[in-house]
Amino acid sequence: MPVAFVRLSRCNLACVWCDTAYTWHFEGDNRPHRDGETFARKANQLSLEVEDVAARIADLGQNRLVITGGEPLMQAGKLAEMLEHLPDIRVEIETNGTIDPPARLDVRVDQYNVSPKLAHSGNPADLALKPDMLDRWATDERAFFKFVIAEPGDVEEVLALARTHAIPPARIFLMPEGTGSEVLREREEWLVPLCLKHGLRMSDRLHIHLFGDTRGS
């Protein structure tokens, strides 16, 4: 569906396959990334006043807002302040699931898209998979889980997390990792049967098929 879309900078994790490394992998950041490319912070990080951002969002004329990153909840206080200027818009926040949103922000969120990072992301499990936070999201009916899948074995890791933290299968989406249509289609050939077998949902990457691996503006 058409939505207003805001991408924030900075992340507390570093996925080796991240397709938005320009939001965090700045010059001097030695965390690994498979492309090995770093980005100039000044050219890729824009600072705006809260009221300005809210006005720009309102001018887009959409009734739904998706806030993504980087990791948006690193800026939770400013997000709460911004959303107070947008009382009538429905809000989704995309998060890696490691940060608990403060109440001032939480009351303004209609949906959380929680994407815990599996072992193939390259993040240490003690940073990426915090048991207390996984329990917190599992008990929040607004939270839908999206796991990035690179190979069939990754699904077993998802199933183990679902059992441990009582995550309802109806709120679990599996999404193939990839930045090109050919790779996505190849992985969906074995991912679809696994979703059907385990009663999980699948998320394609429609924007890749439509626009390719390109940055928004």
Task: Give a quick rundown of the structure.
With 217 residues, the protein is of the alpha/beta class.
Q: For the largest beta sheet, what order do the strands appear in spatially?
A: 1-2-3-4-5-6-7
**How much beta, percentage-wise?**
15-25%
Instruction: Describe the main β-sheet briefly.
Output: 7 strands, parallel
Number of helices: 9
Please tell me the total number of domains.
Answer: 2
Uncertain stretches: none
Secondary structure: number of strands: 7
Written overview of the protein:
The chain is built from 9 helices and 7 strands; from the N terminus they run βααβαβαβααβαβαβα. With about 220 residues, the protein is an alpha/beta fold. It has a 7-stranded parallel sheet with strand order 1-2-3-4-5-6-7, covered by helices on one side. Helix 2 crosses helix 3. The longest helix is centred in the C-terminal third of the chain and has 18 residues. The radius of gyration is 17 Å and the shape is globular.
Keywords:
7-stranded parallel beta sheet, 217 residues, alpha/beta
